[in-house]
Specification:
The protein is mainly α and 414 residues long. 59% of the residues lie in helices and 6% in strands. The radius of gyration is 25 Å and the shape is globular.
């Protein structure tokens, strides 16, 4: 067994494609790859130990490595085209000074050229625009995107005013993103396109929700500095100061500023409805609705008063996770397999899930999202909670996928 194959064999098994290609010096690199393997590949590439890396753009954009030939398979990611800023950053990493005298960028998507005079005309034009050295993109704002018209397809455009009005009317409904998704999909008459656009629209609405939650968190944070008796009178003042100091407000047109104020007023009204208990939401970095769900879970399961084993806590947290994030589809027992250090190959067979999906489940759903949930639980339990130490250890175990204190300390130092 070639030494390059060893880490891949341990994670993926002998027959997996990564284990096979490693012996030829062709290695992968992308966000869901185990961190230890990623670091090893970056080091090997810098030291010229390997000649080729099949990777996402994050390697070239985020790691200082020498690149002579950059092969780009396409300029679209899902339904989103690559920005000029990211493309220029990407190609700027080729022909690194002091390493190579020149670099080459090759787009390998032949269909892009073949369809340039037909239905692919706009995509061809956009791709050529990426190579324009004078091209500059304006700074944008995720908050401002909420109030601007949303072009779902070339034929369907949802006015920003309609989106803002719907959000404001349903801001206290925790499922407004799903309901708005259904309304937008109704606007798309062609049945064959609905499945294609569903995920794209849902991601866009989730970005709106995340921005709104951030505004909500910021308002609550500023309110927390004042006594409860003053918060009601100060809420509107804080809301106004916050909106006027955003990039969104600076860039917005007159009509967009009106919509922004309407949106901030709706968030303000939502907070005012729970003004008496805002201290419990400070620092959680989640919406008030999600915080309330966690608080109820803490009370229902007597987390503050009844001592639980780590396994019992994990079982309860998995149930809460499934309730709060049903779309993440995490099976019971999966998090424990991750903590125990089971190989991707073993987990794939046990849960009948493809290894590619196992990676995502481990690196995002468990390592990030579930450990983040445990962090919020830690923030919301009482100071005298009898399970606080166990929760902190469990959070680290979920974050790093290890089950001993020594292993956790090693991972934290990486």
């Amino acid at each position: 067994m070639n030494e390059k194959e060893l880490p891949f064999k341990e994670y993926y098994g002998e027959e997996y494609v990564y284990t096979q290609t490693a012996q030829y010096g062709i290695l992968p690199h992308y966000s869901s790859l185990p961190n230890g393997i990623k670091i090893s590949i970056e080091y090997a590439y810098k030291k010229n130990k390997i000649k080729a890396v099949a990777c996402t753009s994050t390697l070239a954009q985020g790691v200082n490595i020498p690149i002579k030939y950059l092969l780009i398979t396409g300029t679209n990611f899902s339904a989103t085209k690559m920005s000029v800023r990211n493309f220029q950053n990407l190609i700027g990493r080729t022909g690194r000074s002091g390493v190579y005298t020149e670099g080459n960028i090759i787009i390998t998507e032949s269909k892009l050229y073949d369809d340039r005079r037909g239905r692919g005309y706009y995509k061809w034009k956009e791709t050529k625009g990426l190579f324009d050295g004078d091209a500059v993109e304006a700074c944008g704002s995720s908050i401002l995107n909420i109030v601007r018209d949303y072009a779902v397809t070339y034929e369907v455009k949802i006015p920003g005013s309609e989106i803002v009005n719907y959000i404001c009317q349903n801001i206290t409904d925790n499922k407004w993103t799903n309901k708005l998704l259904d309304k937008i999909l109704d606007e798309i008459n062609e049945t064959d396109k609905i499945k294609y656009y569903r995920q794209q629209i849902f991601e866009q609405l989730c970005s709106y929700r995340d921005s709104i939650n951030s505004i909500e968190n910021e308002m609550i944070y500023f309110l927390s500095y004042y006594p409860l008796t003053q918060t009601v009178n100060l809420l509107h003042e804080i809301s106004n100061k916050l909106i006027e100091n955003t990039l969104a407000f600076y860039l917005a047109s007159k009509e967009e500023k009106i919509l922004l104020r309407k949106l901030f007023d709706a968030i303000e009204s939502k907070i005012e409805g729970q003004i008496g208990g805002i201290q419990k939401y400070v620092g959680t970095m989640i919406s008030m609705a999600d915080a309330d769900n966690i608080i109820r879970w803490i009370e229902d399961n007597s987390i503050n008063t009844d001592i639980r084993t780590t396994k019992e806590l994990l079982d309860l947290i998995e149930n809460l996770f499934a309730e709060m994030y049903p779309s993440l589809n995490l099976k019971n027992g999966f998090a424990l397999s991750w903590i125990l250090g089971n190989s991707y190959e073993k987990m794939s067979k046990e849960y009948e899930i493809k290894i590619y999906d196992i990676e995502k489940l481990c690196q995002y759903n468990v390592s990030y999202q579930m450990s983040f949930l445990v962090g919020n639980i830690i923030d919301l339990v009482d100071a005298e909670c009898v399970n606080i130490a166990a929760l902190k250890l469990l959070q680290q175990a979920l974050r790093y996928g290890v089950n001993t204190k020594t292993a956790k300390n090693i991972q934290k130092r990486k």
